[in-house]
Amino acid sequence: MLRRLKRSTTVAVLLLLTAACNSGHSTPTYAIAPSDREGSAFTHDLAALGVRNGLSPRLGRSADSDPSRTLYVLEAHGHWMRIWSQNVEVCDFNGSPRPDPRQYVIFVEPILPILPNGDADALAVKLKSELAAMGYELRDQESPCIGRQGR
Fold it and tell me: pLDDT digits over 6-59, tens only?
């Protein structure tokens, strides 16, 4: 009985150490939609790519009385991975934050932090390629207020 308890404790400690050593976080990618696409188009395009890659997407949005302030969100799960995306908040002419309907942040990561990032990283590269082929501009850094600069 004591031997079993020691073995269980050792396994638990090793799992915790593995989780602590693996960040489990991906580097965000920023996508900028072409100017001829409506706000929800990116979320629907990313959902379709998620389905094509075996993930189950869930889409959501939060609308204000001003349609330009709609927040679009996507979360997709499958193959022990998670895609999460939403449009980025940028400043308007008054300096107030608002969701930009053309600029999005995307994360692809393992569901559990103890899992390696390899599959998630490979999916992120594949999604970037597919989004670029669809006409989206992809960046590694956010571009604040890009929606207001006539891009």
Answer: 666 665 555 554 444 445 556 788 888 888 887 789 999 999 999 999 999 999
For 95-148, the three-class secondary structure string (H helix, E strand, C coil) is CCEEEEEEEEEEEEEECCCCCCCHHHHHHHHHHHHHHHHCCCEEECCCCCCHHH
Q: Across the strands, what pairs with 58?
A: 75
Q: How far is the CA of 111 from the CAs of 82, 98, 129, in angstroms?
A: 6, 29, 22
Contact 104, 9 (CB under 8 A): no
pTM above 0.70, yes or no: yes
Q: Which amino acid is at 26?
A: S
- The interaxial angle of helices 41-52 and 118-133, nearest 10 deg, is 130
Q: List strand residue ranges (DSSP E) for 7-80, in order.
A: 29-32, 56-62, 71-78
User: Which of 45, 42, 36 has the alpha carbon at shortest distance from 103?
Assistant: 42
Nearest to 70 by CA among 59, 58, 82: 59
